[in-house]
Design brief:
Length: about 425
């Protein structure tokens, strides 16, 4: 990382390495650990958001917690939890800090990419590398940009190009690269070491929300990768494996990450409501000119009505998110060892569960994170309070891909029983 880029101090959370030395051993224990991490992050989230330092310390905290290993196989030291638990853990961490919830979310996706598009040998090798070293994984994969160009050079492939967005790369140990092999239309994913001269970060992430995600640009110059690390490709023939990359299972990466998004949106929105609730109880004053005056803001009809409505909609959204998470988990459980058996219809059904919560989480998240100001009062707009970070975080990422297209997609499913064609966003 460039010397002039300020970063948070990893020593801040050093005590948690010993405190969390014992890894959780059940789903409930993993979620309890995620709540502990969230509580730690929530203490100074507003100040860290304003300081806008590269989150070295926060990544160290995630490493101490063990959450980076949540989905990995136990034989290498992982938690071997299903995606349904992974999604809930993302949600918990995002309640305390949306940026760090998002970084955990992307890591869990990229660290398990080989499960979807890798060979059995690559799956094992990747898990062992990441879990045993407790690595954090970022990704330089942004379909809206031009693809990275890949050329073949003997036993290696060579990546070149640039991406406008690259989440978590600056603070990562490994980075997922993706591009198109020269002379073909075939895409290749590969996992590479981040700290090498050919990966050059722009340090230009200065957006209104999710400020600690290091989602800025990156240039990729002559990054050499052994053909054996080209996920899902045959090293000898230098061709994509038909039984891995040309089947519906390979496209599960897209609904999996779309559900990642929905869960940190929900976590941020729930965090906003919890934060606002404490503020209202402790600081909001009753309105003295309404004609039905109350002694306390917590007796105000409109305040109680708004909190009740927000709470009900978030509770419903969580139930839908959990249902979608269970659906995705069941697909991985059923077809993980028999990937060719997944049908386009089953893949489409999973995608529409995910699309449903994407729509609901976006709508509810934006409404709650903006609406909490109505029940906290004018003083809650102070930068010191930091209530604005929740809306800024959701507003920033919900522009990732237009939710209007998810509504249209669901409309065709509801009216015409059409499953969506797999794409980079479906």
């Amino acid at each position: 990382m460039a010397a002039n880029v300020p970063a948070s101090d990893e020593a801040v959370y050093a005590s948690y390495q010993a405190k969390w030395a014992t890894q959780p051993d059940s789903s409930d224990a993993w979620l309890a650990r995620a709540r502990e991490v969230s509580e730690v992050l929530s203490q100074d989230a507003a100040q860290r958001d304003q300081d806008n330092k590269s989150p070295r310390a926060e990544i160290a905290l995630l490493k101490h917690s063990g959450l980076l290993k949540l989905l990995g196989p136990k034989k290498y030291g992982g938690g071997e939890q299903p995606w349904s638990v992974g999604y809930q853990a993302i949600r918990e961490v995002a309640k305390g800090d949306g940026s760090i919830g998002m970084l955990l979310a992307y890591h869990l996706l990229w660290s398990t990419t080989a499960n979807v598009v890798g060979t059995p040998e690559q799956i094992e090798r990747t898990h062992e590398l990441i879990i045993k070293n407790n690595y954090f994984v970022g990704g330089a994969v942004n379909p809206r940009d031009s693809d990275l160009k890949i050329t073949s050079d003997g036993d290696h492939i060579v990546f070149n190009g640039a991406k406008f967005f690259n989440t978590g790369g600056v603070v990562s140990d490994l980075t997922v690269l993706e591009g198109v092999l020269e002379g073909t239309e075939d895409h290749i994913f590969a996992l590479v070491e981040t700290r090498q001269p050919g990966i050059k970060f722009a340090h230009n992430w200065h957006n209104i929300g999710l400020r600690l995600t290091e989602s800025g640009g990156v240039k990729i110059e002559n990054i050499r990768v052994p053909w054996s690390d080209a996920l899902g490709w045959d090293e000898a023939t230098k061709k994509p494996r038909e039984d891995i990359l040309k089947i519906p299972f390979a496209s599960l990466l897209l609904p999996t990450i779309q559900l990642v998004f929905s869960n940190f949106y929900l976590g941020i929105a729930i965090g906003a409501l919890e934060f606002a609730s404490k503020y209202t109880v402790g600081n909001t004053r009753a309105w003295p000119f309404g004609g039905d005056n109350k002694e306390s803001a917590t007796d105000e009809f409109y305040i109680l009505e708004r909190y009740g409505n927000f709470f009900a909609h978030l509770r419903a959204a969580e139930a839908l998110a959990d249902r979608a998470g269970e659906h995705i988990s069941s697909v991985y459980s059923k077809y993980g060892s028999n990937r060719a058996s997944l049908t386009p219809e089953e893949r489409g059904e999973a995608a529409e569960w995910v699309a449903s919560i994407k729509v609901v989480a976006t709508d509810v998240g934006l409404r709650v994170t903006s609406g909490v100001f109505e029940v906290t009062g004018a003083r809650a707009t102070s930068l010191k309070v930091g209530l604005d970070r929740f809306w800024r975080d959701i507003r920033t990422h919900t522009l990732h891909d237009p939710v209007a297209y998810k509504n249209r997609e669901l409309g065709r499913f509801a009216l015409l029983h059409e499953y969506p064609e797999a794409s980079w966003y479906t």
